[in-house]
MscS mechanosensitive ion channel (Pseudomonas syringae pv. solidagae), 72 residues
Amino acid sequence: TSQGIPLEIYCFTRTTVWVDYERIQGDIFDYLITVMPEFGLNLYQQPSGADMRVGLRGEVVNQAKADWTKER
């Protein structure tokens, strides 16, 4: 497409424990994102518009600030 080439990762795990599956999935994507530049590739995600509207209202930033303040 004009936005790039879609990539689908299709694999299996031996575990059915959800937390372990999520960790494995995260490890796979962390690795792929890390090695992409080695192949001259860039990660790209086109904004949908809905996420931009929320960000423009500042709700995400304000919530992040509130969460950060609570942690201190």
